[in-house]
């Protein structure tokens, strides 16, 4: 027979934990001394306790473990393997998520200068007037988000005729001087008539500061809205004067998908 202290040492837990397991009916001693109330365990109980401790280390709740024990699953190798395989998949997802977070932190660290400012590279371009045909989102009247509108637009983009370059798409943002923000996802085209439910936007000739967002578009902590925030929060260091006009996102062959770590999207901010 093993004492409670010996059992705790063998399974690397505390005697307090063993008392708790007993109190909730999860793991009972083989015998309790009538005179001293000491707990004693059979060597054959070691395997069960080690499984309980292992499942706890995986994050399983005590009630779940009790159900496994009472159903006989703790002694069923096939069922245990099924549980472990499920946990392996969970761990892989967690590792992937943590790796993405690590990549974001490392990328953010590289953006900071010694003074603690974020430095973003940009170029200056003058863009001649062009026309975009696409689907419109109005912040005051639309019930969906911009990403949801993009999903609807992708299903209908082939309806746009005579695209100037089918590899280039645009996210046009205007009307920000008022209360509503209007955003149009579309392609450059001069074709008439317009597809049902779509609009045309004329972007006038304008000088732009062009910044590049790199990575997924909607990944928490490092999506395209974070890039917009960085641009505007650090605007004074660029020594540029913003002009009234149309902002737009430019998607070309460097855009590899909304979740792709290697995707790049150019952001055009009008300047004087």
TrEMBL record:
UniProt-listed SMART domains: AraC_E_bind, HTH_MERR
Domain HTH merR-type: 1-71
Molecular-function annotations in GO: DNA binding
Signal peptide: none
Superkingdom to which the source organism belongs: Bacteria
BP-aspect Gene Ontology terms: regulation of DNA-templated transcription
Pfam family, one: MerR_1
Protein name, entry field: MerR family transcriptional regulator
């Amino acid at each position: 027979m093993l004492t409670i202290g010996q059992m705790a040492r063998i399974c690397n837990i505390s005697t307090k934990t063993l008392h708790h397991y007993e109190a909730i009916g999860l793991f009972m001693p083989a015998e309790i001394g009538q005179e001293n109330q000491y707990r004693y365990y059979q060597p054959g109980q070691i395997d069960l306790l080690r499984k309980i401790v292992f499942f706890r280390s995986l994050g399983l709740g005590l009630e779940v473990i009790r159900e496994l024990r009472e159903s006989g699953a703790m002694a069923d190798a096939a069922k245990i393997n099924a549980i472990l395989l499920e946990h392996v998949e969970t761990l892989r997802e967690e590792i992937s998520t943590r790796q993405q977070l690590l990549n974001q932190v490392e990328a953010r660290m590289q953006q900071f200068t010694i003074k603690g400012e974020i430095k973003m590279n940009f170029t200056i371009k003058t863009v001649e007037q062009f026309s975009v045909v696409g689907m419109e989102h109005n912040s005051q009247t639309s019930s969906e988000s911009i990403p949801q509108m993009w999903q609807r637009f992708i299903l209908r983009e082939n309806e746009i005729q005579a695209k100037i370059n089918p590899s280039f798409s645009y996210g046009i943002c205007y009307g920000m001087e008022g209360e509503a923000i209007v955003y149009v996802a579309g392609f450059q085209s001069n074709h008439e008539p317009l597809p049902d439910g779509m609009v045309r936007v004329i972007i006038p000739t304008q000088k732009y500061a062009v910044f590049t967002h790199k990575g997924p578009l909607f990944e928490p902590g490092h999506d395209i809205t974070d890039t917009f925030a960085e641009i505007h929060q650090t605007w004074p260091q660029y020594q540029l004067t913003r002009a009234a006009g149309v902002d737009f996102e430019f998607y070309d062959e460097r855009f590899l998908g909304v979740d792709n770590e290697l995707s790049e999207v150019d952001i055009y901010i009008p300047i004087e």
